[in-house]
Structures are given as C-alpha cells and as structure tokens.
C-alpha cells in the first residue's frame, strides 16, 4: 500500500514537498510516478523516476518547477513556484513507467494540494 503525505494549502509562488512510502514493503524495486487530478478533470501524469539510473520525466505543465527524487524507501515531489492550476489531489504510483495513468500498477489514496491566496 502506497501512502502520500505533505499536501496542504499554499499561496501562489509557494512550495510543497510530497512524500510517498510503501507500507510494509520497499519501493526500491519500482519506478515511481506522481499524478494529479483537478476537480472535474481526468487524472494526469506529472512526473516519474526510474530505479537504478534515476532517469526522470516531467509533464510540460510542471517542467522547471517540480523536481522528482527518491531514496531506497521513499519517493519525493518537490513543488516550487506553485500556481492555482496546480491544485488537485496528488497520487503516488509504483511499478510502471511513463505519464499515462494506465502505466502504473500500484496506487496511493492521494493527498490534497490547494494553491490559493
């Protein structure tokens, strides 16, 4: 089971750092992905990171503002210069690759990120 944390309310231009852990197991064998879903919209891919090489991929919407990273047991998404359009529920995913929702097998329950003044 994947568990996200670190969401919250932040003003435009602010930062948040999301974390993803695996309850009862390790993430070291899997690529990790981050996805988000805004109200009334479909879930979309934000970023993903591979295992050994640390290869990363970002959506055009967050390129240059978000940074994905990981250690053996935790995945991270550092979000800087946040914009109101970044608001949504952010999900962590594991065992897969890419920015398509169908690309990953395991999913967390999500954490709310709200960017508002």
Q: Would you tell me the overall average pLDDT?
A: 95
What letter string, H or E per element, gives the SSE order? Answer: EEEEEEEEEEE
How far is the first residue's CA from the last residue's CA?
34 Å
Number of E-state strands: 11
Task: Write a structural description.
With 117 residues, the chain is an all-beta fold. 0% of the residues lie in helices and 50% in strands. The strands form two sheets. Strands 2, 4, 5, 6, 9, 10 and 11 form a seven-stranded mixed beta sheet that branches. A four-stranded antiparallel beta sheet has the order 1-3-8-7, with no helix packed on it. β7 and β8 form a beta hairpin. The radius of gyration is 13 Å and the shape is globular. The model has no long low-confidence stretch (mean pLDDT 95).
